[in-house]
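Q: Sequence in, structure out?
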Amino acid sequence: MLLRKRTCLYVRSIAQLIRTAREKAGLTQSDLAKRIGTSQSVIARLESFNNTRIPSLNLLERIASVFRARLSISFEYPRAA
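A: Exactly. Output:
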């Protein structure tokens, strides 16, 4: 259950990042979809806070390239006491 809850938080963070970047670039969902070769409904689903699907790295990389950004994934380690 905890893993599912964390996954939802990650997906929501991704949704917010995509929406913020798209709006900052002045693009509609349709504009972004056309640039990455997908449909507007895929972008709408990605930006939805109710979305439970994890987007593929390939899709995230294509989105990042539209914004001339680099996709970055990191691990966070707990600090030793």
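The mean pLDDT is 91.
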